[in-house]
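chain and backbone:
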Amino acid sequence: MAKNKTTETTTSVTDFVNALKGEARRKDAFRLIELITTITKLEAKMWGGSIIGFGSYHYKYESGHEGNAPLVGFSPRATALTLYLSAFDSRETFLEKLGKHKASKGCVYIAKLDDVDLTVLEKLIKNQMKEVKTNYEL
């Protein structure tokens, strides 16, 4: 079975964010780290080369594939902040109120934090935590 590429590392989150291109991108990444840390009470850690994660949970698929993933995570990509927020039952209700974003099954893409309602984003993050804690082994 293939080894998971995205695992927790010892790379410095601060060094990673400081190396990002663009002042606005760095500023949004630090703001998001602060917001998620306040909500989760968990320390930001690097996962793989570009994901900032908070906490972890263990998953196992019917196929037998298993591993660990962050409870909440994001990546400050060149075109958007990519938040890894699963498709929990009430997610669409929150996304309708979030503001300017794009979404896929497991991700929410935000060009800049000023485009969204941070109170709604906080609720999305809290619901992600609740969903993972309910359905997975921590």
Notes: The chain has a mean pLDDT of 92. The chain has one domain: 13-135. Residues 23-40 form the longest helix (18 residues). The first strand starts at residue 44 and ends at 47.
